[in-house]
Specification:
By secondary structure, the protein is α/β, with parallel strands linked by helices. It has 7 helices and 14 strands. The longest helix is centred in the C-terminal third of the chain and has 12 residues. The relative contact order is 0.14.
Length: about 210
Amino acid sequence: MAARIDHLVTSGTFALDGGTWDVDNNVWIVGDDTEAIVVDAAHDADAIAAALGGRRLVAIVSTHAHNDHIDAAPALAARTGAPILLHGDDLPLWKRTHPERSPDGELTDGQVITVAGTELTVLHTPGHAPGAVCLYAPGLGTVFTGDTLFQGGPGATGRSFSDFPTIVDSIRDRLLTLPPETVVRTGHGDSTTIGAEAPHLDEWIARGH
């Protein structure tokens, strides 16, 4: 059976630099009826486990370590036995949320994660966070961008650990080079496509945020 993409939205808070914001997060599940991976275990381990059903969870892949994307990861890992994977450059952020629990494995640029016969390639895309990654699944015609690229522009870079010129370089060099029909599945809000976002790069740079 071919892999499919399941989607749920969980709600909670994002906290950084002394502020707290209510947020809705996209949680993506990629797999078939037997096995799956979770992209960003946000807020609600019970809801994510329910969406998995009886499937074996191969890995919990974190696109970055802002608390709203990883807060439910340890609970989901404990429940399923799946390893939590994170890029090493985001460990300082991770430790702010989970000081007593380290990720189980490190994501590296170019690494390939295979689930249900589908390959997802890790693209290191720093800027929103130092260890931010996207997951490109050409067989599914999609890229999971976390908070690197949204419908309408780059992820936020106004807080600690983030940098606007870096995220622009990441998007230009790693994402806008993908086929234009590639569906962009984001960490928050609606999906878009590479082709819909690519023409606006100069506009984003002019805005400077």
